[in-house]
Amino acid sequence: MDTPAISTPAGTLSPMMHTRAHWIAFKTILIREVLRFSRIWIQTILPPAITTALYFLIFGKLLGSQMPVMDGYDYTQYIAPGLIMLAIITNSYANVVSSFYGSKFQHNIEELLVAPVPNWLILAGFVGGGVARGVAVGVVVTAIALFFTDLHVTHWGVTIGVVLLTSVLFSLAGLINGIYANSFDDISIVPTFVLTPLTYLGGIFYSINLLPDVWRAASLANPILYMVNAFRFGILGVADIGMLTAFGITLGFIALLGSVSLYLLRRGTGTRS
Amino acid sequence: MVQALRIRNLVKTYANGVTALRGIDLDVEAGDFFALLGPNGAGKSTTIGIISSLVNKTSGTVEIFGHDLERQAYAAKRMLGLVPQEFNFNQFEPVMEIVVNQGGFYGIAAAEARERAEAVLQQLGLWDKRHEQARDLSGGMKRRLMIARALIHEPRLLILDEPTAGVDIELRRSMWTFLSELNAAGTTIILTTHYLEEAESLCRNIAIIDRGQLVENTDMKSLLSRLHTETFVLNLAAPLAMPPLIPGYVLTRLDDTTLSAEVSKDLGLNALFAGLSAHGIEVLSLRNKANRLEELFIRLVEHQS
């Protein structure tokens, strides 16, 4: 080992340098997260692409050809926005829960806890990674959808807005799951037993107007219904739910889960003893 | 002069009710090479955990170079570098990326972080391994990687929690040299170790912690001067049935050809050898039974219990 040549830095920073340092820290976490899921694209990007292709093949082409027109669109077109949203939801969630729990498991979350990185920045970095994967998978799945059906964006603002907000929301949910998880089993319980059923019952494959009143009312308690319908409105221009309600509920959940995440990070739940 | 570390009345009680720290006060001067010693479970790692924000304290205050860790967390954390006991990097990330990312967490732009990473990886002999995944490094290289990562933001206070555990003698010696030179260049170093020889040869000041309390906090010379006796092991030329009686010395037979001799500083070794010669006992070689600090450490900790 050679002679060290380490100088000593100043302890305090000006507000501008402080902001710059935080921006660099955020970029570092975000890029690390993007590189993480990009390196293992066979595990992260390819499976949703294959799954979605199978959905389109079976539900869209084979069974869908027997189905009536839904809200003025053939069945393949009708389910396409929901299937894209399904991939965005599951992948933004999976990215954050596996990355955050992996950091706890390998103890490299300590790299962030020791460094002068505030909790909100840790949250923003991991959520940014989840959004990046959600959007990346969304783009890939949309490209696959175009092999099976025609899609044209009707409302760009709604489409982009709902994609970003939904991936933020489920990244936050994944973060909370990752904070509480103590084993790899714990990170698969919520996606398997909560997220998947809610997603399938969230109006991907059907309009809730086709359901009996009681099931229609029950469906309205499912937050995923609002996001799927908002995205369908953005693409096709049809939805079972008003956009104000859909965006209001999504933003409300983001505020709730964001507050819970920050509270847990500040307490050190699952990260500090 | 601002102290590198100032701890007051630090208490930690874990959720299971175990009190690991019972009101510790500790000062480490800027520029010091400081040893924090104690038996397993004494509270060393809890103390380091609180200083490095990995453990929540129950009460008390911690200041790093005058910055309160709670109220001025950003400034305090920038001063500190930590080399933990356990490997705590992502085993699947390349060496260079681990070090550069840590620079990013401290607000160092990527280009500058890469330059700094090259410098520290060169210094620690890891530059050739920069593209390898951390999991492919040897144990000694992983330890050096953690030191490189801790130095990327040029901390003024470096805490090393058993940095030489499990590394071979050659590497341990080169790490001692590296740390001594780092300290000479102005970095305050706090070291915990189970190799007491390491603390004795490197550190100027020492604190011993046991059962959550400081049982000693002084300079190394004063501490060692308190040791009035040393124990030597003598290898004999011929087998011996009974140890001889030599006034002033406590001799114990360890086996046929080995004796241990407890020697007071006042008496020295000449009278011992004269006495052994008078009994016709020829000594082939002798060595310290344990290093001096180890003897003191055991006495202090045993005294507490």
TrEMBL record, chain A:
GO terms for cellular component: ATP-binding cassette (ABC) transporter complex. Pfam families: ABC2_membrane (PF01061). One of its GO terms (molecular function) is ABC-type transporter activity. The keyword Calcium does not apply. Its main location: membrane. It is a multi-pass membrane protein. Residues 39-268 form the ABC transmembrane type-2 domain. The chain crosses the membrane at residues 40-58, 78-101, 121-148, 160-181, 187-208, 245-265. The keyword DNA repair does not apply. It is found in: Cell inner membrane; Membrane. Keywords: Cell membrane, Membrane, Transmembrane, Transmembrane helix, Transport. PANTHER family: INNER MEMBRANE TRANSPORT PERMEASE YADH, INNER MEMBRANE TRANSPORT PERMEASE YADH-RELATED. Belongs to the ABC-2 integral membrane protein family. This is Transport permease protein. It comes from Plasticicumulans acidivorans.
TrEMBL record, chain B:
One of its GO terms (molecular function) is ATP binding. Keywords: ATP-binding, Nucleotide-binding, Transport. This is ABC-2 type transport system ATP-binding protein. The keyword Transmembrane does not apply. Residues 5-236 form the ABC transporter domain. It comes from Plasticicumulans acidivorans. Pfam families: ABC_tran. The keyword ATP-binding applies. InterPro entries: AAA+_ATPase, ABC_transporter-like_ATP-bd, ABC_transporter-like_CS, ABC_transporter_ATP-binding, P-loop_NTPase. Transmembrane segments: none annotated.
